[in-house]
Design goal:
By secondary structure, this protein is mainly beta. The chain contains two helices and 18 strands. Helix 1 crosses helix 2.
C-alpha cells in the first residue's frame, strides 16, 4: 500500500463521523457549538531545488543562488569555434512546507478545505530556437492556465531540507488545479494537521519539462511569491483563558515589606560561531584556500545555560536539529543541519565542495539564520572572514 493510499484511507476514516453527523444534524455531535473558521499560513520553509547538466561538466548541481520560488527549466545549445558544440540543461523545482499547529488551539477542528495560492511572475519564455513566445500554450498543449511555467504539484517522498538536486516525489490525484496560481490541497492539509511529525514533507511545485536531454534552446521559468495556504475548518471556539488564581499568601507585615527579593531568571541558550577555516581540495596545509572545490569548517558552541533546539525545523521531535548557513560575498550559498547543542557543548560543522574562484572573498557562517532558537544573545550568531585569499 502506497503512502498516498494510506493517507486517503486515514483521512476517510477520520472524516467518517463528520459525514454521518452532517447528513443527520448538520454539525458533528462532538462539536455542538461549532462554527466556521479560516486561517492563513505562510510556508515555514521555501527552497528552490536545481538539477543542472552540461556537455563538459562545467555546471555545478545544487549551486542555485537565485530567488527561492523558481519553477521551470532552461535548455541551451551553443557553438564555440575553439571547442565545438556546448550543451547545457537546468531544471528548477520549488519545495514548500507548512506548519498547521496553530489550528490545534481550536477544540475538535475538522478541515473542510485548503487552498494554495501564490503570485506567478513568468520571467523567461522562449521557443525551441530561442524565438520569443507569448504563452506556454504555444509550447505545451497542456498549458491551459495562461502565462505560467508551473505544470503540476507532487508530494515529496523524503525529507529534502538541506539536500540538492531534484526531489523524489509522487503524484496525488487529490491535488487539483483551480486556476493560474491556485490549487486545492485539502487532503494533504488534513494529513499535515493529523500527523504533523510523520513524513510531513510538504509539496513540490514543478514545471512542464523535467526530462533534460539538451533538446533545444527553449526556456520557461516562473518565480513564485506571496505564497499562502488558506485553511477552512469547522471547530468549537477556543476555550477562554482561566481566571487568575485567588491570592493564597497573606501580605507581608510592614516591617518586612522593604525587603527586596532578587529576581529569578530561567537559563537560556546562547549560540555562537567562534572560528571559520577554509581548506582547498588537495591543499598541503590546513586553512589554505584554492580556486575550485574547498571545505569550509566552522566551530559552533552553545555558551548559554540551556540546550539550543530548533523544534520547528526537526521532523522527529526526539532528534531536534539546528540550521547553519554559509554566505559567500554576501550571498547565501548553502545550509546544513546539526544536532541540538546542550549547554557549553562545542562542535565543528563542515560545508563540502564549496566552489570558490581565485581572488579575495568574504565568508560568513550564521547559526540559526531564521531566528527560531530562543537565546540570551543574538549578536554573536555569525562569524565573518572578510579577506580569504584563494590562489
Amino acid at each position: 500500500m502506497t503512502r498516498l493510499t494510506l493517507n486517503r484511507l486515514r483521512t476517510t476514516l477520520a472524516l467518517l463521523p463528520l459525514a454521518v453527523a452532517m447528513a443527520t444534524a448538520g454539525v458533528p455531535a462532538q462539536l455542538a457549538h461549532a462554527s466556521d473558521h479560516t486561517l492563513h499560513f505562510g510556508p515555514s520553509i521555501v527552497t528552490t531545488m536545481e538539477q543542472v547538466d552540461s556537455s563538459d561538466g562545467g555546471l555545478t548541481p545544487g549551486s542555485w543562488n537565485g530567488s527561492p520560488g523558481t519553477v521551470g527549466y532552461t535548455h541551451g545549445i551553443e557553438t564555440y569555434f575553439y571547442r565545438g558544440d556546448f550543451y547545457y540543461d537546468a531544471v528548477f523545482e520549488t519545495a514548500l512546507r507548512f506548519n498547521l499547529s496553530q489550528i490545534h488551539q481550536f477544540p475538535g477542528a475538522i478541515i473542510t478545505n485548503a487552498t494554495l495560492t501564490y503570485t506567478d511572475s513568468m520571467k523567461y519564455l522562449q521557443g525551441a530556437n530561442g524565438e520569443p513566445v507569448a504563452d506556454p500554450h504555444q509550447l505545451y498543449d497542456s498549458a491551459v492556465w495562461g502565462p505560467s511555467c508551473v505544470s503540476q504539484i507532487g508530494v515529496p517522498t523524503a525529507d529534502w531540507r538541506g539536500e540538492s538536486g531534484l526531489v523524489a516525489n509522487t503524484a496525488d490525484d487529490s491535488l487539483a488545479r483551480l486556476g493560474l496560481a491556485q490549487w486545492n490541497v485539502t487532503e494533504q492539509a488534513r494529513y499535515w494537521y493529523t500527523y504533523p511529525d510523520y513524513q510531513n514533507y510538504g509539496l513540490l511545485v514543478k514545471g512542464f519539462d523535467e526530462s533534460g536531454g539538451f533538446l533545444n534552446n527553449s526556456v520557461c521559468q516562473s518565480e513564485l511569491s506571496n505564497i499562502q495556504l488558506q485553511v477552512d475548518f469547522v471547530a468549537n471556539d477556543p476555550a477562554p483563558p482561566p481566571p487568575p488564581p485567588l491570592p493564597t499568601v497573606p501580605p507581608l507585615p510592614p516591617s518586612l515589606r522593604e525587603t527586596h527579593v532578587a529576581p529569578q531568571f530561567s537559563p537560556m541558550a546562547d549560540l555562537l560561531v567562534s572560528k571559520v577555516d577554509v581548506t582547498g581540495k588537495g591543499a598541503k596545509t590546513a586553512n589554505s584556500c584554492l580556486a575550485g572545490d574547498n571545505v569550509v569548517t566552522a566551530t559552533i558552541k552553545n555558551d548559554g545555560g540551556a540546550s539550543a533546539v530548533d523544534a520547528d525545523y526537526s521532523l522527529d521531535a526526539q532528534i531536534p536539529q539546528i540550521v547553519v548557513a554559509l554566505r559567500i560575498d554576501g550571498k547565501e550559498r548553502v545550509r546544513t543541519v546539526t544536532f541540538l547543542l546542550h549547554a557549553a557543548e562545542e562542535r565543528t560543522v563542515a560545508f563540502e565542495a564549496i566552489k570558490l574562484t581565485k581572488g579575495t572573498h568574504a565568508l560568513q557562517v550564521v547559526i540559526d539564520p531564521d531566528n527560531r532558537v530562543s537565546e540570551s544573545d543574538k549578536t554573536n550568531n555569525s562569524f565573518t572572514q572578510n579577506k580569504v585569499v584563494c590562489k
